[in-house]
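Check out one such.
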Amino acid sequence: MQSKQISVSLDVKWKSVLLVWFWWFKNMWDELILLWNVKLLQKQWKQIFIVSQDNNRLKIFLSKEVDCSKITFLDELPRGFRSTIRYIKKNGFSQIKDFWNIDTVILWWGEILTEESPHSYYYWFWSIWPSLLLRKNLYIMWGVQVPQKIINKILFNWILRRTDNIYCRDFDCVSELKKYWFENAEFFMDTSYFVRDNWGKYFHKDGKKYIVVNINKNGKQFMDDLKKEIKIYMDKWYECYFVPVCDGWTDDDNRFFPEIKKDFPSIKLKKWDDDFEKFLQFLWWAEIVVSARLHLYLISEYIWLDTKVFPYQKKINKMQRVISEIEL
């Protein structure tokens, strides 16, 4: 099978761009994708707006890599009565005008429109409703699945009719959308790949005897399989490190560490967000990475490590196929 070339050309013709994403607190993958989108738009001299749940922390994270002085950070829009009251108390309606002033919205997240993520169609509608009503230019990026439920189809069609282009990070998504009726869909590599210029330039060297593991709430049914993998290597005197890829209040991998530690008291916790460059240097020396997180699996693939991933959702299998067919 001939490998597919990766395109890095994201065609955004308009000046001011609003990035709306699923702002899980301390989610490594979402933040790496956001970082690349910012880098790309800054190269094109765009005026950038970002919607975030925690603007101060996000500024700190991004400022290590990019100039944030000209980026406007907005609070997420409310999606219920209580959140509306909190929003008005904090901002009044001062930030709403920014949704009117922007030209383009890039709406993205891993599985952005899929029934595997409950209420995603409803969630995203309320996240960008001012832009949809004013018919701003809209791009959607990443995982999209044609819904089965009637209410989801209604919202899906409404959003699609206002969408200029969809950039899918897997090939099935492109095919399904075109069969459905939406023609302006194309493959675009998960943009975390572009964040570091040194992906693929670092080779694993023997001599460090440790493995890196992770599990999350969606992959917890694979806990026994993960423990079997840990035991295989610990019986060979390998050290083991658990990495909580997401340790925010909405989705916290840390909750599974105590359960693993009960069976393997010597296992150690390794954080990624204190210094991501140092974390990468640590990861390069791992013997194998065993994970239920797509996030950690893809990073490990990018630097050519041995990996094992537990497919708790379709996106895992889809991205494994992408990795096998593209030119890394």
User: Anything to note?
Assistant: The longest strand covers residues 104-113.
